[in-house]
Amino acid sequence: MGELTIDKKVAIIASNGGLFDAYKVFNIATAAAATDQQVSVFFTFEGLNLIHKEAYKQLIMPEGKEQFAEGFIKANVPPIPELVAMAKEMGVKFIGCQMTMDVMGLEKENFVDGVEVGGAVTFLEFANDADVTLTF
């Protein structure tokens, strides 16, 4: 008898743009993709920093949390640009919020390759029947 495949979906909203936010988003996204789940991440407001060609290379450790920097190195946690590349390779879909980009004067070219630009409706079409929905 053939194995039954269940198409699970994980929908993530990334609205914060700090280093810890990036690790949360990409850790969950890559873990879900690694377990054969469809993953879409909707980047809005400060969350756009997580996929911005320049900003994602220089996300800073939150003030007072500098002691974690060494822990990230010791635990071999990849830097954010590497996690972004891994997520894309694993098929995670990145959606940049059109409204936020318009408000901030940003263009698709400001972001890593492969970002789809869309509004909330684009994300909701995916999230409508998602098994897991998370916001960071």
Provide structural commentary.
The chain is an alpha/beta fold. It is built from five helices and five strands; from the N terminus they run E-H-E-H-H-E-H-E-H-E. Strands 4-3-2-1-5 form a five-stranded parallel sheet, sandwiched between helices. Helix 1 (19-34) links the parallel strand 1 (9-14) and strand 2. Helix 1 (19-34) runs parallel beside helix 3 (80-89). It is globular, with a radius of gyration of 15 Å. It starts with 8 loop residues before the first strand and ends with a strand. The relative contact order is 0.25. The model has no long low-confidence stretch (mean pLDDT 93).
Question: Number of helix segments?
Answer: 5
Record the strand order, biggest sheet. 4-3-2-1-5
Beta-strand content: 15-25%
Please give the oligomerization state of what you see: single chain
How many strand units? 5
- Helix percent band: 25-40%
How would a textbook summarize the main sheet?
A: 5 strands, parallel
